[in-house]
Amino acid sequence: MLADFGKLARPEGQAMRILDPNGTVLRDWRPGPDDHANPEIDRGQLRDLLLGPLEVRWGHGVTRVVPGGGDGVAVHFADGRQEAFDLVVGADGAWSRVRPAVSPAQPSYTGVTYVEAALDDVDTRHPDLARLVGDGSVVVFGVNQALVGQRNSGGHVKVYAQFRAPADWHAGLDLSSAEGVRSRLLARYGGWADPVLDLLRRGTGFVHRALYVLPVSHTWTHVPGVTLLGDAAHLMPPLGAGANLAMVEGAELAEAIVAGSGDPDTVVRAFEQRMWERAGRWARMTTAGLERLVGPDPAQAVAVFDDVHAS
Q1: 140, 142, 145, 147 alpha-carbon torsion, rounded to 10°
Q2: Domains and CATH numbers, the chain
Q3: Angle at 88 between CA 85 and CA 91, to 5 degrees
Q4: What is the pLDDT of residues 228-273, one digit of tens each?
Q5: How many other CB atoms sit within 10 Å of the CB of residue 208?
Q6: Which of 36, 157, 193, 236 could in theory staple to 23 by disulfide, Cβ–Cβ 3.0 to 4.6 A?
Q7: CA–CA separation, 29 and 197 (whole Å)
């Protein structure tokens, strides 16, 4: 699997250029030829690699999980069926249907919204934007807002408009109308340099992604037969930690169960303690990072990446 990962990963994707809203280049980091420390890979490609050897049953939407039955933990499916399991692991994201079985916590809005767009065949259709984004990412920081272009594989670029706004910022706007969303965003980023705004002008497929988080130190009283991992357990700002934590936790839990002796519930309790400690540290860091990256002082946002590249 590692060899297959190497064929798809992009070490050059570590490159990053930071601009100000006038288009002035403030930072331009490029990895060296032997720098493979943090390669990029499209999430869909990584998912397919990890799921390749597994037998996955798709199309089984879960409505609720009920622990405590004599025959195990009851999982209720959207099609009306019900099955019992010895262990249910809620790895089902921000709006987990498993979480209520162990915790009443609900995600809360951070005050920051992302609107995602896409550029396809950027090298042939938009060569000027291909140069702007480079091999990795271009980031432009303003007051309480930012604009990001991130290269994926196959000439595809993801564009993220990031800004602080009330949860109902789109009141009266049809989010399914690409031109309506584009117009609203261009007004919000009014006065920014034209080459930067072209990321929005030429982007397609706008998707609204308001950022929600769970409490920084989210834990729960252990419930036999049920646990959580990833965003279901510790939803935090998307600053590069969440997906990595989920993969580490999934591997750790699986290895602990396979290697464990005695009561499996003891193994799960120990896993939860380790997860909570580590996730709490990352939740605090990413929460502080979001305050700086989408905040009133763009210089603080740039300083976040200065710190990363100095370490």
Answers
A1: -20
A2: 2-42+108-213 (3.50.50.60), 86-107+215-293 (3.50.50.60)
A3: 150
A4: 999 999 999 999 899 999 999 999 999 999 987 778 899 999 999 9
A5: 14
A6: 193
A7: 22
Are 245 and 282 in contact by the 8 Å Cβ rule? The answer is yes
pTM, two decimal places: 0.93
Alpha-carbon 115 to chain mean position: 13
Task: Read off the tokens for 170.
Answer: 């789109």
Structure tokens that stand for 300 in this block: 């603080």
Torsion angle in degrees (nearest 10) through CA of 110, 305, 157, 20: 90
In angstroms, rounded to a whole number, what is the distance separating the alpha carbons of residues 91 and 77?
16
Are 227 and 92 spatial neighbours (Cβ–Cβ below 8 Å)? no
Q: How far is CA 136 from CA 40, 41, 127, 187, 272, in A?
A: 8, 11, 15, 27, 35
Q: Which residue has the tokens 């869909």?
A: 44
Helix (H) or strand (E) holding 207: strand 204-213
Tracing tokens 């959207």 back to the chain, one arrives at 78
User: What does DSSP say about strands 16-19 and 137-142: parallel, antiparallel, or unpaired?
Assistant: parallel
Q: What is the pLDDT of residues 139-178, one digit of tens each?
A: 999 999 999 999 999 999 999 999 999 999 999 999 999 9
| Overall average pLDDT of the 191-200 stretch | 97
